[in-house]
Amino acid sequence: MSKWQKIKLWLPVIVWAGVIFSFSSLGINKVKDFSWVDFVIKKTAHVTEYAILYLLTFRAVSQKGRLIGKKQFILPLIIAMFYGLTDEWHQTFVPQREGTLRDVGFDSLGALISMYWMKRNI
């Protein structure tokens, strides 16, 4: 595989990770009282962001679906979960933000949903 082919496969992963990082860098206004609507919207965003990260990483690892095996399903999951963990840690340094293991769980859930979907559809 040429250098340019690798760049074409991995550039979307890097760009999407940058999008996630940029959202995590924004301060947020905390809601005074707990709101289910706010909770559902934010956690759905976590699941969606990491479902997409898994799919893009799967595309890169499997070379657009040319290589299919256990490694091609597990490695993107590990990458997405690790990135979720480091992103939550990053949020501990952002004013008005906090990093939580609960959010790592929602991130991981998004990646797991994508992995399940990919396994069912390939």
Protein model, in words:
Helices cover 75% and strands 0% of the residues. It is mainly alpha-helical. It starts with a helix and ends with a helix. The protein has one domain (3-25, 35-121). It has four helices and no strands. The mean pLDDT is 92. It has helices at 3-24, 36-61, 70-91, 101-121.
- Count of structural domains: 1
Main β sheet profile = none
Beta percentage is: under 5%
Structural class: mainly alpha
Which range best describes the helical content: under 10%, 10-25%, 25-40%, 40-55%, 55-70% or over 70%? over 70%
How does the overall form come out from the CA principal axes? globular
Average pLDDT confidence is: 92
SSE topology string: HHHH
Distance between the termini: 23 Å
Unreliable parts: none
Report the count of strand segments: 0
Summarize the structure.
By secondary structure, the chain is mostly helical. The chain contains four helices and no strands.
